[in-house]
Amino acid sequence: MNAVKLRIREVEQVADAVVAVTMESMAGLDLAPWEPGAHVEVVLPSGLVRHYSLCGDPAERGTYRVAVLREDDGRGGSRELHDVATAGTVLEVRPPRNAFPLEPADGYLFLAGGIGITPILPMLGAAERAGLPWRLVYGGRSRSHMAFTGELAGYGDRVRIMADDVEGRPDLAAEISAEGPDRLVYACGPAPMLDRVAEAAAEAGAADRLRLERFEVAAADTTGEPFEVELSRTGVTVPVGADETVLGVLRARGITVPFSCENGYCGTCEAVVLDGEPDHRDTYLTDDEKAEGFTTMICVSRCVGPRLVLDL
Predict the structure, then answer these.
(1) Which of 172, 195, 231, 272 is in the most buried spot, having the most CB atoms within 10 Å?
(2) What pLDDT score does 1 carry?
(3) Where's the 2Fe-2S ferredoxin-type domain (predicted)?
(4) pLDDT higher than threshold 90 for residue 74
């Protein structure tokens, strides 16, 4: 997917250590459309690529808004964005993708934890415009760390905000059990919260109605049978061992290829497959895209068979 250069229009502090960044076309053009649950990939000045959920209004075609929590103990992307995010800064942004779409239902229960409110926020607007019943339960460490509480106040008692240091943690099992079988449950937040949500949904018999988005992805299994990779542009063929990855082998030989997450979820290392069948281990491609076998993520994916030819 081709990136476009967007200019930061506005940076707003929306919670402790959280900034909302609104970006616009440098030429004043409409941006690619998106639906609630979508994210964009931001290419930072250092070359790091990070995914951020869109949390603005899809009807506002002239801007994208993301909100980013600064994690000083993270891998560096959030720190860098906080450091460079000023009005006028230009960033490369790849078009929206949506792996967390808002599916049709008779109503919704939304569960958000911390920065997990970002993909949920536009879903509330969509449910509201559709005239559907919905509730939001939003938890966090403290009110000062919870973004967009001012915007959420406009929804009245359909929004329940629970800070750990005041109200305590929500009873997720009770919240899920209170919803009828025609309601979908959408949840986004830190991994421990989502684990509790999954357990509560299973206990309530609602596992089939639960939709989750995890910001942290479990490490992919990259092991398997050895195979060879041919790089079509140079004709070079390199072996990939049982415990090696295509990316690791290429880098070890001084071959420069783009990469970021090294865990199959960002799409930066996507390579076109010219021959052979990829053994997909990523979470970036859709099931249909995997079935087509047109591209592969070389940081985690392997080969079904002895040989893979890539357009590299």
Answers:
(1) 172
(2) 55
(3) 227-312
(4) no
Nearest to 269 by CA among 255, 74, 73, 304: 255
CATH for 4-97 is 2.40.30.10
Identify the sign of the CA torsion 287, 290, 296, 299: positive
Query: Token digits for 94?
Result: 């790849």
Residue 266 vs residue 20, higher pLDDT: 20
Each domain of the chain, given as residue ranges in start order, spans 4-97, 107-214, 227-310
Fold of 107-214: Rossmann fold (3.40.50)
CA distance 18 to 35: 23
Rounded distance between C-alpha atoms, residue 279 and residue 210, angstroms? 28
308 Cβ contact partners less than 8 Å away, ≥ 6 residues apart: 227, 228, 229, 230, 246, 273, 275, 276, 277, 278, 296
**Spatial contact of 139 and 115, defined as CB atoms under 8 Å apart:** no
- Token pair, residue 307, equals 């040989």
The pTM assigned to this predicted structure is 0.79
Tell whether the model's pLDDT for residue 306 goes beyond 60: yes
The two structure tokens encoding residue 162: 């629970």
